Amino acid sequence: MQPQGTALVNTAYFDSLIAQVNAIDVCADLQSVVNEVFASLQAEVNAIEAQIEALLPIITIPTDLPSVIRWITNFIDPQLAAYANYARQVAELITKISELTTAIENAASRITSCSITVPTITT
To answer: Would you say residue 119 lies in a domain?
Structure first.
């Protein structure tokens, strides 16, 4: 995955996963890759959501003037930018995970007698 702040989602990573899935011909190998990849993706989504949760108190606007001035000066611009970045990152991850899931399902259907369980990524 991408280091925070460099891009929303490393789409080349997902493209390589899809290529890897498309090259698998053994059902057990496909399930092994699916389990490993989705565990990593769940950890990534959890980390992003933890950052979003941590930022929520900072984007709550205070009511007294000195606090408002301090809040604007110290927090709003970088925190709102980070929050928006994380929200976009989760949205793009969901799209790429959907594409990966489709590739996995297609690979399982072309492999004889293959049934794959794709874990659910929760948000």
So the answer is: no
pLDDT > 70 in the chain, percent:
93
| CA gap 104, 35 in Å, rounded | 11
13, two tokens: 């990573």
Residue 30: inside a domain:
yes
- pLDDT score, position 1: 46
Query: What is the count of structural domains for the chain?
Result: 1
Burial classification of residue 50, based on how many CB atoms lie within 10 Å of its CB (0-12 exposed, 13-18 middle, 19 or more buried): exposed
| Domain assignment present for 6 | no
Q: Are 38 and 118 in contact (CB under 8 A)?
A: yes
Range of the domain at 22: 11-110
Q: How far apart are CA 59 and CA 25, in angstroms?
A: 49
Q: Whole-prediction pTM value?
A: 0.56
